[in-house]
C-alpha cells in the first residue's frame, strides 16, 4: 500500500453459518481503494460483491462472520482504523457508518422507512454525525436535495419515499449518502432497478458529485457497460474470489482471464456482429454448497485444463503494476 | 457417499408437494406430539364404548360426587406389584361437620383388570361387543370420580370426546363451504360482487361473535330434541367460523387470479368452473388445510363455551362443554375438584391442534426453507 | 384525512343500521312470544291464563302488530326518545334495568385492552429480539397455553384457587360496603380492586395472540433493507430497533385494536357470568334464557356499538400512525 490508499481490504474471507452448512461467500479477496478514485466490483449474482460492501460497512447479516482478513481505513495514515476488529457497539464504528463511509442501496424503495419522511431520515443522519441543530440539519437536507437535482426540495423533504418516482428516490438516496460529506461512498447496484435513461442521469450525477465532494466510490454492479463509464480500477469477482483486477483499460482492452473475456463477449455491441447471437457463458453457476477444489470457474471454463484447474487454486499473478490475474491457462501460456 | 447424496437430491426434487410438506412437518417435534395426542383422541372418539368402563348415563347407585378411586401397586403381602389395585369407598358421617363423606375403605381392595367383560354395547351401532379396556369384578371403579348424578366422569369424558370432536369437524365443514363459496366468488369475480361480500363480512365481524350466536342459540326451542339441537349447533359453529376462512380464500384467489397460468387457461377457453377447480384450488389447497386446522380450536372453544352457558348442546348429549357446565358453581368445584378433569381434554385438544396447525403452516410455506 | 374520517363515519352509521336489523331479527327469532311464555310459566306454576289475558298482554306490548310496524316503532322509540322498549321480565324500561351495567362493561373492556397491550408489546419485542432464547421459548409456551384455555375455565380455576387457598372469593364487583353506595373515588378504586381479575382473564387470549403477531412481524421487519440502511447511516442499538422495525410493527398491532376490542366484548359475558360481575354479560344471559327479548336486543346493540366505535377509533389511530393509509396509497 502507499499513501494514496484510503481503504485496504486484505485477504478477506466471509463465511455464512447456515443450517445446511458453511457457505463461503468471500474467499480471500484483497484490493485497495485510492483517494478520490472509483473502484468497480463486477460479477454475477452470488459472486460476493454485495457481501464485500456489507463487510466494509459491518452490516453483515447475523449468520455471517468475518473469518480471516483485514479491512483497514487510512483516513489518518498515522492512525489507521481496523474496521474488521471494531466491536459492534463501538462509537468509532458508528462514526464510520454514515460519516466516513456511506452507502447507496439497490432498491431505494425498500431502503427508506415507509413511515418516516425523507427529510426525517436525512436529518437524523446529519444530527447523528454533525453538531447541527434540527433547523440547520433541515436546511442542509433541502440544500442536498436541490443539489442532486430534486425539484421543489422544500416540499419533497416532508414527503415519504413512496410519494417519489424511482429516479427521484435514488437521487434522495444519494443526497442522504453525501449529506455528511463522507470519504467513501459504496454504491451497491445503484442503477439496476431504474430505467435506462434514468440510469444515465444517476451515473452522471454520481460523477459530478464525486468531483464536487472529493470522495472515493466503490461501485458494485453486474453490468460491465455501466462500470466502463464509472470505474478507474475494476475487480472481477466470481464465487467469492477475484478472478482478475486492473484498470478499466486493462480489463476492457487486454482481458486475460477466460471469465472476463466471456463476460465481455456477452455485452451486446452496436454494429459488430449485428445479426449474430450474443455469446452466453455456458453452464450454470454451481450451487453455493457444492464444494470444489481448484479454480472456481473451471466447471464453466472453455479452456480449463483437466487435472490442473480442477485440483489446484491458481495464484494471483501480476502482469503490470495494476493488472493481476488468477488463472492456470494464463500461467501456462507464459511458459 | 456421493451416490447417496445424489439419490437424496433426486428424491427431493421429484417429491410431490404433499411429500415435501410431510418431510418438513416431521421436523417439528411439537407438531408430532400434537398429532399423536389428536390420534389418541380420534381413537377415543371412534371407540368410546371400549375405552369407557361404563356408558355415559350409567349410575352407580347412590355414589354421587364420589372422588377418584385410589390406585396402588401392591400385592396381597403389601409389597410392590405391577398389577394395579383399587380401593373402594365407604360413606361415613363426619363427626365434626356431620356431613356425609367418602372414606377410603381399606378392606375393600380389588385388582384393576384389563380387557374385562362388562356391559354389552354395539360399536358404530351394529358391531356387538362387551370387552372394556379396564374394570373391576365387583362394584364400580371411578378413576376420575363421579358427578352429581353418580355417573362415571371418565366414561362421560370419553363419550364427550366423540360429540365435541364431531361437532367441531361438522362445524368446520360448514364454515369451509360458506367460506369457499363467499371467498371464492368474491375473489374470482372481483368488482361489485367482491365489494358486496367484503362489506358483508366486515359487517358481521362488527357484531360481537359470542353474544350474537348466544342470541341465535337461545332461540332454539326448549322442546327440540338433542339431535336437532346438535344439528343446529353445527350450523351455528359454521357461521361463527366462516369469516376468517372466506378472507383467506379470497386473498389467495386474488393473488393468483392474474397469474400467467390462469390467463393461459382462460385464453384456451376453459370455463370458470374448470379454472377454479382444476387450476386455482390445487395451488392454494394446502394453505386452506392449514387454516382449517388453525380454526379448529376455535370450534371446540365455541362449543364448549356455549354449552357451558347452557346455550349449546343439552343433556343427555355429553360434550366437554356439557360436562364442564356441572362444574359451574363455586361449591361444586371446591368440594369436588375432579369435576374439572374434562377441562384437561379441552386444553389438550386445543393445544394439539395449535401445534399441528403451526407445524403445517411452516411446512406448507414454500419459503420456509430459506435460511 | 378528513375525507378518510368521513368515509369511515358513514360506514359506521350504515353498519349501525344493519346491526339494528339483525338485532331485531334475533329479538323476533324465538318461536312464540312473551305472552305464550308467560302463559306457559303460569301454567307450570299451577295458575291459568285465559285467552283474554294472553290477548291483553299482546295488546299491551304491541305484539299483535306486523313485523315492520314493530321494527319501525322500536327504532323510532330509540332514535326519538332513547326508549329501547320494555323489559317484560322486570316490567320496567330496558334502560333502567341496564343502568350502570354499561359503565361496568366499558370499564372492563378498556381495562382488558390496557392490560393486553401493556403486557403484549414489551414481551413481543423481547421475544423477537431474543429469538430462540430460554425467555422466548418460555413466552411462546405460555402463549400457546393462554390461547388454549377457554376463558371461563381460567376464571373458574382462579375462583377455585382463591377460595381454596386464600379463603376469599374474587368474584363480584364491589365490597359489601360499596355495593349500593353512590359513585365516589373510593367506590371506583374498590371496583378496580375487583374487576382486574376479570380483565386479566379476558386479556390472556388476546395477549397471547398479539405477542405472536408482534414477534412474527418484528422478525420480518428486522431483516428488511430500510433497517440495514439506517444501520449503515450510523443509527445503532436501541434507537435503531425502536425507531424503525418496532415502529413499523406497531401498525398491524394498531389495526387489530378494533378486533381485539370486539373479541374482548364478545368474550366478556361468559367470564362475567363465572366471576359474577354484574355488568351486561350475566344480564344478557338471563334475558336470553327467559326470552326477555327487548332487553337482550338492547344489550346486544350496546355490545355491537362498543365494537363499532372501537373499530372506528382504531381506523383513525392507524391513519395517524401510517402515512400510506392517510394518503390513500395501497400497500
Structure overview:
The complex is a heterotrimer of chains A (335), B (371) and C (331). With 335 residues, chain A is of the alpha/beta class. Chain A has a domain at 5-231: Rossmann fold, CATH 3.40.50. Chain A has helices spanning 49-57, 91-96, 108-111, 118-129, 134-147, 153-156, 166-178, 196-213, 224-230, 248-253, 258-265, 328-334; strands spanning 5-18, 21-34, 38-42, 64-73, 81-82, 101-104, 184-188, 216-221, 233-238, 241-247, 317-318, 324-325. An eight-stranded mixed beta sheet of chain A has the order 6-7-8-3-9-10-12-11, sandwiched between helices. Chain A has a four-stranded antiparallel beta sheet with strand order 2-1-4-5, covered by helices on one side. In chain A, strand 4 and strand 5 form a beta hairpin. In chain A, helix 4 (118-129) crosses helix 5 and helix 7 packs parallel to helix 8. Chain A is globular. The two termini of chain A are 30 Å apart. Chain B has 371 residues and is an alpha+beta fold. Chain B has two domains: 61-149, no CATH class; 156-368, Orthogonal Bundle (MetI-like fold), CATH 1.10.3720. In chain B, strands 1-2-3 form a three-stranded antiparallel beta sheet, with no helix packed on it. Chain B is elongated, with a radius of gyration of 26 Å. The mean pLDDT of chain C is 83. The interface between A and B is small, with 5 and 1 residues.
| Shape designation of chain A | globular
Percent range for helical residues of chain C? over 70%
The strand line-up of the biggest sheet of chain C is: 1-2
Oligomerization category of the chains in this entry: heterotrimer
SS class of chain A: alpha/beta
Biggest beta sheet attributes of chain A: 8 strands, mixed
Strand portion of chain A: 15-25%
Order of helical and strand elements of chain A: EEEHEEHEHHHHHEHEHEEHHEEH
**What integer is the average pLDDT of chain C?**
83
Low-confidence stretches of chain A: none
Order of helices and strands of chain C: HHHHEEHHHHHHHHHHH
- Helicity level of chain A: 25-40%
Low-confidence stretches of chain C: none
Q: What's the total helix number of chain A?
A: 12
The termini of chain A sit apart by 30 Å
Largest sheet properties of chain C: 2 strands, antiparallel
Q: Give the tally of β-strands of chain A.
A: 12
Number of helical regions of chain C: 15
Classification by helices and strands of chain C: mainly alpha
What is the overall silhouette of chain C?
globular
Q: How many E strands of chain C?
A: 2
